[in-house]
Specification:
By secondary structure, this protein is α+β, with helices and mostly antiparallel strands. The chain is built from 2 helices and 3 strands. A hairpin with a 2-residue loop joins strand 2 and strand 3. This is High-potential iron-sulfur protein.
Amino acid sequence: MNNVNRRDFLKLSGSTLIGLTLGGVALRANAQEQIKLDDPTAVALKYVHESAVEGHYCSNCQYIQGEDGQEWRPCGIFPGKLVNAKGWCSAWMQKAA
């Protein structure tokens, strides 16, 4: 009985990992439009293209995705949108070292 449960667990875990990986790839592939400051989510989270807080930038936030060094990158907070690496929003959280 334990072997069956363990096998099912491993199948589910593997499927979940693949789904999360492909989901992240899909998010990056679909993010094409730069976020506008009047976007309702941007307004709600006080997003700005240039951070006024020293050391708090989209580029060092845990939600940023894509390659380092790009000016506009996908963000998990704004699906389908690109944020400025120099930007900031109230959901900012320091990227783990």
